[in-house]
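Technical annex, item 7. During the second reporting period the consortium partners agreed on a shared format for inverse folding records so that results from different sites could be compared directly. Each record opens with the tokenized structure and is followed by the designed sequence. A conforming record, contributed by the partner at site C, is shown below for reference.
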């Protein structure tokens, strides 16, 4: 460790190390809690930002994992302070956790800024918690290390492995088609989530945990460890020890988060067959770091990087298998020639040093560049008159026949309209139709809910149809699959072209050419737009109103306009 800071250089010294009336107050109040001068004098104060809550099953273990972190911090000569933050349970929070990602980012940044802290440990994993924590930490700029909550164990139903989300969609469709019973459905409900931890397919949680490790913000291999594995608490202790060293070394996120680090993260995303949601989050995180990553960069890198991880929903296995196969270090080792190995990480070592010697133990779970699961990357970005600023599709998770397709639209004005129509026995629909959902975007949802995997119309289920093209300005869960075209920008609520699609219009998709085209003339589209009136925001006051006013579009990462940028923030006055 190269020590660059002296105790009197610590940020917390301003609160605790000086001799005046205010610092008397800070110290006397720490004594009130039971601490003594030995606890803090000359020691880095480490804020443990913990997104544990009683209603977040993905983070159920983080309450006790914080104690493992504290043990590590104390062993290394630091002073740990746990600070609870918004938990954002993906399955519980409505209308959408995406509505609160920026809230958590603000909370993280301001918790770190307003308290006497020198470094941060960020504890999260359930979808939006990772980008929320990381965005806030980037903007604050203190040395920070991320602890991934880790995936839960495989699900089980009658000896079959079940994957979070993916098998919910699958068996819900079979139930609607009359192929499984109520009892089967109840057994699946009891077997699909067997331990604490995040979803265990390559959903948004697993993708974002891996991306954050690939960026260099988490310990090598940490994102693959199952939450219930004893390696997980040991990793937490290690992170606690390391963050203290990072404070002395003054190793801040801006030394780690370079354009090359973001390219590494996007390449890992592609090789993992990761969630489409990650595009929005990575764009937002990069912009906080002052790096102008856009959707085009994802598309460019997607053409260079094949899918190596054979994990659902694009592949066959689950995150527990991925860990036994060698985890992210092994996959990055297989991707070595495509990565910038010189990028710095929280270990104080480079990416190349961190993955050195990693081995793949099960070759059908983690493939090689010479034997990939899918020749091109996980995500394609399409553009055209229907999505002038872009939209995304996950080709690996779609029926290949839809990658080049022309069909008639069936347009739904909003979610309720869609849910009503989709169950109609007399809906005039064929498998070649294209379902279009409007008002599911950042402002229209609001909060860009995960409605993008529209249900297959009931009338087609009986015919055995399980995939068709669905287009929306919403997102879909990373656990979802199918020919779903998402994140259409600009969204329909603000008058994007999607808003003016009518049932019967023809839409053409060509994923190879990255094209999406609405076969309606410009004149007719202008006529439809002239007759349209911008709807009022849904929320008249409070956070919802602030969200509606300041949220950006999907192609820009959905950050608030006032949170973007790298303007230097003043340290709080202490008086
Ligand atoms: Fe928390 Fe999926 S619900 S990660």
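Designed sequence (site C submission):
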């Amino acid at each position: 460790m190269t020590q660059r800071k002296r105790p009197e250089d610590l940020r917390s010294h301003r609160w605790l190390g000086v001799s005046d009336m205010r610092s008397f107050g800070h110290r006397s109040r720490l004594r009130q809690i039971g601490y003594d001068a030995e606890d803090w004098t000359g020691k880095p104060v480490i804020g443990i930002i913990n997104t544990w809550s009683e209603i977040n099953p993905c983070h159920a273990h983080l309450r006790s994992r914080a104690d493992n972190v504290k043990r590590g911090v104390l062993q290394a000569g630091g002073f740990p302070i746990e600070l609870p933050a918004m938990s954002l349970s993906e399955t519980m929070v409505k209308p959408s956790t995406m509505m609160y990602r920026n809230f958590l980012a603000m909370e993280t940044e301001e918790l770190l800024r307003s308290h006497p802290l020198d470094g941060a440990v960020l504890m999260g994993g359930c979808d939006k918690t990772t980008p929320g924590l990381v965005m806030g930490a980037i903007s604050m700029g203190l040395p920070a290390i991320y602890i991934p909550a880790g995936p839960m164990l495989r699900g089980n139903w009658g000896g079959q492995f079940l994957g979070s989300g993916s098998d919910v969609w699958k068996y819900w469709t079979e139930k609607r088609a009359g192929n499984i019973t109520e009892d089967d459905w109840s057994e699946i409900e009891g077997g699909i989530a067997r331990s604490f931890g995040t979803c265990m397919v390559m959903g948004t949680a697993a993708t974002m945990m891996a991306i954050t490790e690939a960026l260099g913000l988490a310990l090598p291999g940490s994102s693959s460890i199952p939450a219930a594995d004893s390696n997980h608490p040991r990793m937490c202790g290690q992170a606690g020890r390391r963050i203290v060293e990072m404070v002395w070394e003054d190793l801040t996120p801006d030394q780690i988060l370079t354009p090359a680090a973001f390219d590494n993260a996007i390449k890992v995303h592609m090789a993992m067959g990761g969630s489409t949601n990650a595009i929005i989050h990575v764009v937002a995180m990069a912009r906080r770091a002052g790096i102008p990553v856009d959707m085009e960069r994802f598309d460019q890198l997607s053409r260079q990087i094949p899918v190596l991880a054979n994990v659902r929903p694009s592949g066959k296995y689950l995150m527990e298998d991925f860990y036994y196969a060698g985890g992210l270090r092994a996959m990055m080792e297989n991707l070595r020639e495509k990565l910038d190995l010189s990028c710095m990480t929280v270990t104080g070592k480079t990416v190349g040093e961190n993955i050195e010697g990693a081995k793949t133990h099960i070759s059908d779970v983690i493939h090689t560049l010479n034997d990939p699961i899918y020749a091109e990357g996980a995500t394609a970005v399409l553009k055209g008159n229907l999505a002038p600023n872009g939209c995304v599709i996950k080709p690996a998770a779609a029926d290949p026949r839809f990658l080049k397709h022309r069909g008639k639209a069936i347009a739904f004005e909003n979610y309720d309209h869609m849910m009503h129509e989709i169950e109609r026995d007399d809906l005039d629909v064929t498998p070649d139709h294209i379902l279009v959902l409007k008002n599911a975007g950042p402002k229209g949802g609001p909060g860009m809910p995960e409605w993008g995997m529209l249900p297959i119309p009931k009338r087609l289920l009986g015919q055995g149809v399980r995939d068709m093209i669905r287009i929306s300005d919403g997102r879909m869960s990373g656990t979802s699959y199918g020919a779903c075209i998402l994140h259409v920008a600009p969204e329909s609520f603000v008058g994007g072209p999607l808003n003016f699609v009518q049932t019967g219009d023809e839409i053409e998709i060509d994923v190879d050419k990255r094209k999406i085209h609405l076969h309606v003339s410009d004149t007719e589209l202008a006529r439809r737009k002239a007759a349209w009136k911008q709807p009022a925001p849904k929320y008249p006051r409070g956070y919802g109103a602030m969200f509606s006013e300041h949220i950006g579009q999907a192609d820009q990462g959905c950050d608030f306009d006032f949170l973007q940028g790298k303007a230097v923030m003043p340290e709080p006055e202490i008086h």
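The radius of gyration is 24 Å. The chain has three domains: 46-153+195-355, 156-191, 384-530. All partners now use this format for quarterly exchanges.
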